[in-house]
Amino acid sequence: MSRFTQISWLVLAAVLVGLAACGGGVQTTDPSLAYTQIWLTVEVAQTQTALSSSPTPSATNTPAISPTPRATNTPLLTNTPLTAVPSTTSYSISTQAGAPSASCDNANFIKDVTIQDGEEVAAGSAFVKTWRFENLGPCNWTTSYSLVYSYMSDTGKNGVLTPPGPVAFPNKVLPGEQMDISVTLHAPTKAGTYQMVFVLHNENGYSIPLKNMNSYEFWVTFVVK
Question: Is 162 part of a structural domain of the chain?
């Protein structure tokens, strides 16, 4: 017998006992009404028992709302600095030193003192060429400065020539002063027109620019007979 059936019969028995106990008194209620109340009481008891016996649903775990990740700032692409290309430094064309121009040494070409351009010289002979220059400063010229042979051009005769070595400045030259400097040359053995090119160097081997010629170079041009 189930628990529900036992409870129903117990309730019904209790009601019947109650009615029997009241039987000796004056009957004031309709017996049909009494039985109706009994069955209603039984139904209420059954309902309450059913409700009490039903398993209580366990609470379900509501999943917590996952936090939405915040947007992160993506770094902008950085411009890769381009590698800088070094600027070209101007150098003299001197084949002996090839050093860049000095900033504090500047000169003016004044004149050819000996052997004017186009002057004739004997083949294979030795001659002295002299030039005059002015020191434009701001540096002083010393005997550590020099005249340097650079190269020779000719009319295609390709005469044999022994290049001269460097020639030191003859004395100290202050800014504003002038200086004569000479070099001994040997004419080629073949006839033709020749041009020998020179530059002035300071003590560090830098070529001295000639402002009035817009160049580092000066020369002597002669004709071999």
Answer: yes
For residue 123, what are its two tokens?
Answer: 């083949």
**Separation between Cα atoms, residue 50 and residue 11, nearest integer Å:** 15
Please check the confidence at residue 89 and state whether its pLDDT lies above 60.
no
Return the sign of the alpha-carbon dihedral for residues 147, 151, 156, 161. Answer: positive
Does some domain include residue 79?
no
Residue 199, both tokens: 């530059």
Paired strand residues for 135? 107
Q: Per-residue pLDDT tens for 147-174?
A: 999 998 876 566 667 789 999 999 999 9
Task: Count how many domains the chain has.
Answer: 2
Largest interatomic CA distance in the chain = 181
Per-residue tokens: 188: 């080629």
The chain-wide mean pLDDT, for the chain, equals 71
Which CATH number goes with the domain that contains 155?
2.60.40.10
Q: Which amino acid is at 157?
A: K
Q: Which amino acid is at 146?
A: S
Estimate the crossing angle of helix 31-53 against helix 3-21, to 10 degrees.
Answer: 150
pTM of the model: 0.55
Q: 111 with 183, same domain?
A: yes
Nearest CA-CA partner of 131 in 179, 164, 167 = 179
pLDDT at 4 over 50: no
Domain holding 119, by residue range, is 107-224
Closest by CA to 209, choosing from 98, 87, 88, 109, is: 109
**Do residues 127 and 218 share a domain?**
yes
